[in-house]
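Please review this pair:
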Amino acid sequence: MSLLSITTDSNPKAPEWVRDPLEIAEKLSHIGVLFERWEARQPLSDHASEEEVITAYQQAIDHLKDLYGFQSVDVVSLKPDHPDREALRAKFLNEHTHDEFEVRFFVEGRGLFALHHEDRVFLVLCEKGDLLSVPDGVRHWFDMGIEPDFKCIRLFTNPEGWVANFTGDPIADRFPRLAEFLEAGS
């Protein structure tokens, strides 16, 4: 189940919780973020290649490319036994921005996005079927958890793909990680 919490950046202990996907979409639209629930209709094996995932969702990818001018598409997939999971998790846990707009569509699994807008932090639990956009310049970070298990299609307007500008702000350390978020939101 998708889940959103909204707090101020100075008080992460008193969130407003939002569970309804339509209300999540409405709240995030106020900061320029697109959140949609898509039906993940294409069956894929746990070990589907990047090419197989892109082929299975080619129609939706083409629609987003036409709509937003995306130049780059890839698939990021991590399982609990991935040898670099700790290093990858640490990299994405640092607050950063991008110079271009990006979109993530969760084909499998889940992850926790944090969007830092002005003095508020929006923690968004994305699961299979969730599409989330991150506009250029929006400060954010992502937690895949200690035992990552997700597969996402990522779309970028930059042909080079994922290029981060790290802010150096340790704000992410003050907010719950995926496991704590799941516990607090239950």
Q: What stands out?
A: Helices lie at 21-29, 50-56, 58-68, 85-92, 178-185. The chain is about 25% helix and 35% strand. The longest helix spans residues 58-68.
